[in-house]
Amino acid sequence: MKTIYLDNNATTQVDPAVFEAMKPYFVDLYGNPSSMHRFGGQVGVKIKEARANVAALLGCEPEEIIFTSCGSESDNTAIRSALKARPDRRHIVTTAVEHPAILSLCKYLEKRDGYEVTYLGTDDKGRLDLEEYKAAIRPDTAIVSVMWANNETGNIYPIEEMARIAKEHDVFFHTDAVQAVGKVPIDLKTVPVDMLSLSGHKLHAPKGVGALFVRKRLPFRPFLIGGHQERSRRAGTENTTGIIALGKACELALRHMDEENTEVHRLRDKLEAGLLKAVPDSKLNGDPEHRLPNTSNISFGYVEGEAILLMMDQLGIAASSGSACTSGSLEPSHVLLSMGVPFTFAHGSIRFSLSRFNTEEEIDFVLESLPPIIENLRKLSPFSAEKQAPACTKSFTE
Q: Which residues lie below 8 Å from residue 28, measured CB to CB, with a gap of 6+?
């Protein structure tokens, strides 16, 4: 059975060209890039090339890129660095819809180290209020951390404007851009963020490699200490194959950016419009205008998302009920709850996230298969039965 993979915000397939680029460095070119000899030096050259490719995708300088193990490490490094650089400032501003890599860290810092955190809310479309944001910044704010794009709804936030506001208040600004990098244009020469996180497995590189952009002359305190790698900003022998793969993936992402914003966008819209038309009591979650081109989050009322996923899986369709880091929970998404989505709809939300490897035929199959699944599950749902039951006009004591 062929898998129709619509869960690319959780992880992406490794591009065959990326796999080919990294293969020689497993067996033949296995030298340590920090070694003085030529055998290791040729590996160091490839890491330098990869750093340049990542920088080209982001519109920054190669020396502003630090290679990490993943987006979560990059997020933790950025926030902890800012707090160490300004120990007199004990306040953080973030949002209630961040990835757990940010939210869990902030809650830990509140409980363990006594930091104060302001969590910005959203409206019913998942949009932020810039006036609320401005009011949240205080003289003791050390850092603002706001994701570039939401991993569940695909909402794109006004990062350039928010970063400028932070600059006006002399506050560091970090953005978790894990979902945005490779899908929408980013130019850090014009967007004044101080730090930006990305992860390789979200843009067709393997898992286990990421990067952190740190703007020149920004006070920086390393998270991992113990070696001179990454100009002493991140200790540990380099993940050579992962870094080379990430560099190649960034090169390809830059080449395919137009395709992401045209063909992938078109297939996403076709899927979304078809499902909303075919399935009663369904609704789009998120900002319909300012959204990633590949992401659609749809709530199917009065049915459980987990049941939908299981039925789709039997047909070879892979999607998600939310973030991959929280999909093991039966609780509704914290993002949708922040948006005020009713429980009977939030519990039936499905996130479809496409890539340039998806096809028209796959979308057609989902449009044919999913509406009957929803219809059949609603026949078994107590929520649906309650919705359709006639109102009782007499009390039991009459």
A: none
String of DSSP letters for 358-386? --HHHHHHHHHHHHHHHHHHHHH-HHHHH
CA distance 158 to 139: 22
DSSP for 89-103 reads --EEEEETT--HHHH
Strands 116-120 and 91-95, bridge-based pairing: parallel
Per-residue model confidence (pLDDT) at position 322: 59
* H helices present in 13-99, as ranges: 16-22, 24-27, 38-58, 71-85
- Give 179-207 pLDDT, tens digit per residue: 999 999 999 999 999 999 999 999 999 99
Q: Beta 141-145 vs 116-120: how paired, if at all?
A: unpaired
* Pairing outcome for strands 317-318 and 4-5: parallel
Residues 308-323: tens digit of each pLDDT = 999 999 999 999 985 4
Question: Which tokens sit at 273?
Answer: 């419009």
DSSP bridge partners of 107: none
Confidence (pLDDT) at 27 = 93
Burial (CB count within 10 angstroms: exposed 0-12, middle 13-18, buried 19+), residue 391 = exposed
Cβ(78)–Cβ(174) under 8 Å?
Answer: yes
Angstrom distance (rounded) from CA 213 to CA 65: 5
Tell me the pLDDT band of 363, cut-offs 50, 70 and 90.
very high
DSSP 3-state assignment of 21?
Answer: helix
Which residues are designated catalytic?
Answer: 325
**CA 233-249-190 angle, 5° bins:** 65
Neighbours of 63 (CB within 10 A): 11
Q: What is the pLDDT of residue 323?
A: 45
